[in-house]
């Protein structure tokens, strides 16, 4: 139950995290990189003069804006231009620019102050040591786009994915096709240049700011995070479920084992109690309840004998009750050890015993009785006591057990009357 609550709480937590992560990704977690005269160093004006052209470019700052003054001059160079260039690698480790890959768009607040030309070229120069050389800027990739700032309100907002690698540069560098894709992770230079087909003349370009915007994390990163979170949670859930089931199983097995042991103990105890109920505590012989069961068994020939110690009262009187008890124990033991394993000895009461002999004919029972009688009288008893016993022997006929026992008892009585220490047979 506790575990189910825990799982429900974990599930709710996961849903909350997922919901919050999606919400943050779509509505918050925006990052920006704002470049303007107040925070940007290493800005310069470049023209085609650097490649045998004649155009002139200068840059000044006015009212917190850059002003690019450009004199396009005709020359043998076919693509005259001026540009504002921001250098990102100065003061950094060699070969290191800035990483713009987490941005998704760039907003450029720039315009021509005079008419005559209306397109601008936005360009990023990236350096990749896999195919470029730091000391040769021609090998830095040209990723850019030409746009018309005055065309509409939206036209200054350039999605970075709309930037393309300049075809002439790929041709010039003879690069494998796998490098013909835009890269933004190591931008060395940002350039804002006059557009293509510009005519000779003077141009003023005002640049207020350039702002990159993007998310701290890409959608794919957030998706990856959420999938990993759910998969990891599912794995943990599975692991703990299995562990819990395994624990439950071991506990159940242990309980079953405990119950089994308890059951065995109870069986032993039950047997013990049953034995106690059917046995005489002093001698260990069967009691009446125990011996009565014997008569329920279907036995073909069954003989029994009553054995009664002669003058037992005098033993108690002369030697004490404890000695009397010892004699009774010893007597029981002596008889048990000298009859068959299949015979049953019971203490019928006081100093009177009953020996039931299954599968024994009357003659054999008589012989046994005589042997026992002799053993008793010859036995070395405690305190040098002389002991004899009288026997009444009978074989079961067509009669009830009670009548049968009574017959043997009568024979015993006869043995006593005839002077004790003798065996009397009951004739049926
Ligand atoms: N020590 C002891 N004595 C017992 C026990 N049960 C019965 N007795 C005694 O056994 C004696 C039996 O005496 P009686 O019935 O007169 O028989 P007896 O003295 O053996 O005389 P006969 O049977 O006629 O030879 C009594 O004194 C009982 O107290 C017992 O468990 N322990």
From TrEMBL:
UniProt entry keywords in alphabetical sequence: Coiled coil, Membrane, Transmembrane, Transmembrane helix
GO molecular function terms listed in the Swiss-Prot or TrEMBL record: diguanylate cyclase activity
SMART domains in the record: GGDEF
Gene Ontology cellular component list: plasma membrane
Alphabetical list of SUPFAM superfamilies matching this protein: Nucleotide cyclase
PROSITE patterns from the UniProt entry: GGDEF (PS50887)
Domain of life from the UniProt record: Bacteria
Enzyme class: transferase
Record's protein name: diguanylate cyclase
Lineage: Bacteria, Pseudomonadati, Pseudomonadota, Gammaproteobacteria, Alteromonadales
């Amino acid at each position: 139950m506790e575990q189910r609550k825990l799982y429900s709480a974990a599930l709710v937590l996961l849903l909350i995290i997922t919901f919050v992560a999606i919400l943050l990704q779509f509505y918050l977690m925006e990052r920006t990189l704002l470049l303007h005269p107040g925070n940007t160093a290493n800005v310069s004006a470049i023209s085609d003069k650097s490649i045998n052209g004649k155009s002139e470019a200068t840059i000044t700052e006015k009212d917190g804006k850059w002003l690019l003054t450009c004199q396009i001059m005709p020359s043998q160079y076919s693509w005259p231009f001026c540009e504002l260039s921001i250098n990102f690698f100065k003061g950094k480790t060699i070969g290191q620019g800035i990483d713009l890959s987490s941005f998704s768009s760039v907003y450029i607040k720039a315009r021509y102050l005079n008419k005559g030309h209306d397109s601008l070229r936005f360009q990023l120069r990236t350096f990749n040591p896999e195919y470029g050389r730091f000391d040769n800027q021609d090998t830095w990739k040209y990723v850019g786009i030409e746009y018309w700032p005055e065309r509409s309100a939206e036209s200054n907002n350039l999605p970075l994915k709309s930037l393309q690698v300049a075809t002439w540069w790929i041709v010039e560098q003879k690069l494998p096709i796998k490098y013909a894709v835009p890269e933004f992770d190591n931008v060395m230079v940002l350039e804002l240049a006059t557009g293509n087909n510009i005519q000779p003349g003077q141009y003023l370009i005002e640049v207020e700011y350039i702002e990159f915007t993007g998310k701290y994390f890409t959608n794919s990163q957030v998706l990856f995070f959420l999938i990993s979170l759910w998969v990891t949670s599912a794995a943990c859930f599975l692991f703990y479920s299995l562990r819990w089931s395994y624990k439950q199983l071991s506990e159940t097995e242990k309980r079953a084992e405990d119950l089994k042991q308890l059951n065995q103990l109870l069986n032993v105890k039950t047997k013990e109690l049953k034995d106690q109920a059917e046995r005489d505590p002093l001698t260990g012989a069967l009691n009446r309840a125990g011996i009565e069961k014997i008569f329920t068994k279907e036995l073909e020939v069954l003989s029994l004998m009553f054995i009664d110690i002669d003058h037992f009262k005098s033993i108690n009187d002369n030697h004490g009750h404890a000695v009397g008890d010892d004699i009774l124990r010893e007597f029981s033991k002596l008889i048990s050890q000298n009859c068959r394993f299949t015979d049953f000895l019971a203490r019928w009461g006081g100093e009177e015993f009953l020996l039931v002999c299954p599968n024994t004919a009357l003659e054999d029972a008589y012989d046994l009785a005589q042997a026992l009688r002799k053993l008793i009288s010859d036995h070395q008893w405690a305190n040098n006591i002389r002991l004899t016993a009288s026997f009444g022997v009978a074989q079961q006929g067509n009669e009830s057990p009670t009548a049968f026992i009574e017959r043997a008892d009568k024979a015993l009585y006869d043995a006593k009357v005839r002077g004790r220490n003798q065996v009397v047979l009951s004739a049926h």
